[in-house]
Write a structure and sequence with these properties.
three-stranded antiparallel sheet; alpha+beta; 31% helix
Length: 67
């Protein structure tokens, strides 16, 4: 698991080179790179390469199918 700034930069570059994201254009991805890369997580808590913390919220809990 990456733990240093260089490791995160390497992952960002790999993301730019090899992954297509359906929510952004190729030009945007090539120019700005990924918005974030998660480096670790536990249960619902995630941490990105810049040390920011997120809570993963499963969308199927709030999705309601009105019949």
């Amino acid at each position: 698991m990456p733990n240093g700034t260089d490791d995160i930069r390497e992952l960002e570059q790999l993301d730019i080179n090899y992954f297509l994201h359906p929510t952004s254009s190729i030009q945007q991805q090539q120019g700005a790179g990924p918005a974030f890369i998660f480096k670790e997580g536990e249960c619902i808590y995630l941490e990105d390469g810049k040390g920011r913390e997120y809570i993963m919220f499963p969308i199927n809990i709030v999705a309601i199918n009105p019949l």
